[in-house]
Design brief:
Strand order of the largest sheet: 3-2-1-4-5-7-6
Distance between the termini: 48 Å
CATH architecture of the largest domain: 3-Layer(aba) Sandwich
Number of helices: 14
Structural class: alpha/beta
Oligomer: single chain
Largest sheet: 7 strands, mixed
CATH superfamily of the largest domain: Vaccinia Virus protein VP39
CATH class of the largest domain: Alpha Beta
Number of domains: 2
Shape: globular
Length: 417
């Protein structure tokens, strides 16, 4: 069992100092470190992830369940009261488009509220929240007894997007200027198409601009092309293949597919046989019997690549991606130790923030702190979805919130927005 411990990290005097929450395998923190930010404390409840943190960063302060610590406790474990950045990706299942999106009604959503309370108590210069695309459209699901919620009109919590609007307003009440967008990690040098909402708040006069892309699917203006799966796994020793093998029944169908194919590319007479009852379900079902393409970024890594609906098979070999390939796609250094059994290793890596996205966040914050000239980029450079930037999203949310409201409630909303 890994015990809590106080930080022994010595930060460079000029470095920004960060506290990390919901740290997992520390993909975000590696990226921040590459941008010149020093992490003093990790907060992680999961046992295997705590072992991973200890194996790689034994000098780092470490605490467990976020709900068990006061802000005073946290600062004591961090070894400082001068905190520049608080970063974290609260558990995303409560907001995922794959679930019911119950927002804060889900117990995992409640640790999000605890995270916001810690930010309010410590008031770092910057706060970062990373989460899934579903946060853009998640309703709250439960009443919250605080000054922000009490100002909201009746029925507000049931509006799609109410969770994000609440988070935005809560940060603004603390004095933060808030910007956010939905980013595809492939546009920042990750060999993976992974879309995540990144919220950045600052106590400075000007909000933090959108992250500057470095790559594009069809590059122009000096951007580089997307990195591919082939490039990501280049150089992995042939003997390093840690994976959970497929059952014989699954192998029968996977072996018939080529790079970039899925169940729809099976012979027609085998599609229903392979899919069973799932054949008749709605949705694209592209995760079934899916092989990666060599010359494209990987799809979003999942926590279990051998499951029926979330299959991530090697482009040619009849197996799921290995743990070593997972690490490369998420950009963990080869020497970074991931502890636990195979299922725990897959889960930790699959849940991580791609290192390149973490580095882009870190570079943007460092540049903003230095008051370097930064340019906001066109929304089209980030995601395939519309109305994902803070301003466009807020306008869209306001329209949705007013649709089913009375005239009195609409007048109240005008004051809130």
């Amino acid at each position: 069992m890994v015990q809590d411990r106080k930080s022994e990290v010595i930060a460079h005097p000029s470095a920004l100092r960060a506290l990390s929450f919901f740290s997992g395998a520390m993909g975000l923190d590696i990226g921040l470190e590459q941008a010149g930010i020093t992490t003093l404390l990790a907060c992680e409840f999961d046992k295997a992830s705590r072992r991973t943190i200890t194996a790689n960063k034994p000098e780092l302060g470490l605490i467990g369940d976020i709900t068990r610590y006061s802000s005073e406790d946290i600062l004591a474990y961090a070894g400082t009261e001068d905190v520049d950045i608080i970063v974290g990706g609260p558990p995303c299942q409560a907001f995922s488009t794959a679930g019911k999106r119950r927002g804060f009604e889900d117990a995992r959503g409640n640790v999000f509220l605890k995270y916001l309370q810690i930010v309010s108590d410590i008031l770092p210069r910057y706060v970062v929240i990373e989460n899934v695309r579903g946060l853009l459209s998640s309703s709250i699901g439960v009443e919250i007894d605080d000054e922000v919620f009490r100002e909201m009109p009746v029925g507000f919590a049931e509006t799609k997007g109410a969770t994000l609007f609440y988070v935005k307003k809560r940060l603004e009440y603390m004095g933060y200027r808030v910007s956010f967008n939905l980013y595809n990690s492939a546009n920042f040098g990750s060999p993976q198409i992974r879309e995540r909402v990144v919220i950045i708040g600052t106590l400075e006069d000007l909000p933090v601009p959108y992250l500057a892309p470095t790559h594009a699917e069809h590059p122009t203006n000096g951007l580089q092309p997307w990195l591919t799966f082939r490039e990501a796994i280049s150089g992995i020793p042939a003997g390093q293949k840690t994976f959970t093998p497929y059952a014989e029944k699954r192998l029968k169908y996977v072996s018939l597919l080529g790079p970039g194919q899925n169940w729809r590319d099976l012979p027609e007479e085998l599609q229903k046989e392979a899919m069973g009852q799932s054949y008749y379900l709605g949705g694209g079902k592209t995760g079934f019997y899916r092989r990666l393409a060599w010359d494209r970024p990987a799809p979003t890594l999942v926590t279990a690549p051998a499951m029926p609906a979330t299959n991530l098979a090697h482009p040619e070999e009849n197996r799921p991606l290995s743990v070593e390939e997972y690490k490369r796609v998420q950009e963990f250094p080869d020497e970074w130790v991931i502890c636990g059994n195979i299922a725990e290793q897959y889960r930790q890596i699959g849940n991580a923030v791609p290192v390149s996205l973490g580095r882009a966040i870190g570079r943007t914050i460092v540049s903003h702190h230095k008051r370097e000239l930064l340019v906001d980029h066109a929304v089209s450079e980030f995601s395939r979805y519309k109305n994902t930037s803070d301003k466009a999203w807020a306008n869209d949310f306001q329209k949705r919130a007013k649709l089913n409201s009375s005239n009195e409630q609409r007048a109240q909303m005008e004051l809130i927005f």
